[in-house]
Specification:
This protein has 176 residues and is mainly α. It has one domain: Arp2/3 complex 21 kDa subunit ARPC3 (Orthogonal Bundle), CATH 1.10.1760. 81% of the residues lie in helices and 0% in strands. It is built from eight helices and no strands. The longest helix has 29 residues.
Length: 176
């Protein structure tokens, strides 16, 4: 692991802890803009799958421990698995796909979709353990419909951030 990856990892964790404060005063806005997701999605591209998944997993749990939000059960636990999958998938796909802009978008969309499915599966298990039913309607509403502004924000911000980091030589731009 390089010093650069360690520094980027720390910066992305700090962003993940701070960004929700911008929307945290109005929980509905935070649920729509998904501010914690941004640095995690970027982490996979910037520092690779292992660190990206670690950052994704610890971020909601660390944020709960430090600030009491998001609620631990079931939200932070389900988010930990969702965000870990984001960091892992963007890192793996960035390594495997060509470094063309279209593949950065494709990578992001695949990771976002699979991450939401992971969130839904983990949520269903957690709800079942507490004797509650996690319905298909809840999955679609919370996972996709309410999150549309955040999904659009991710599609707008992440590829531009990756391209900027590539141009600044802060992340790898060569295909393997």
């Amino acid at each position: 692991m390089t010093i650069r990856k360690l520094a980027l990892s720390g910066t992305l964790v700090a962003l993940g802890l701070v960004l929700p404060f911008l929307t945290g005063q109005i929980p509905g806005i935070g649920n729509m803009l998904l501010p914690m997701h941004l640095p995690v999605l970027l982490a996979g591209f910037a520092v690779g799958a292992p660190l990206g998944s670690l950052i994704g997993f610890i971020l909601p749990l660390l944020r709960y421990l430090l600030f009491g939000m998001p609620p631990l059960y079931p939200t932070a636990i389900a988010m930990a698995f969702e965000l870990a999958s984001y960091g892992f998938l963007t890192g793996i796909l960035y390594r495997l796909l060509p470094r063309k802009t279209v593949f950065i978008y494709l990578n992001l969309i695949i990771a976002m979709g699979i991450g939401r499915l992971v969130w839904g599966l983990v949520s269903a298990v957690l709800y079942a353990l507490s004797g509650t039913v996690f319905t298909w309607k809840l999955f679609v509403t919370a996972g996709f419909l309410n999150a549309v502004p955040g999904l659009i924000l991710q599609i707008a911000v992440i590829p531009l951030s990756v391209l900027t980091l590539q141009k600044a030589n802060l992340i790898e731009n060569e295909s393997y």
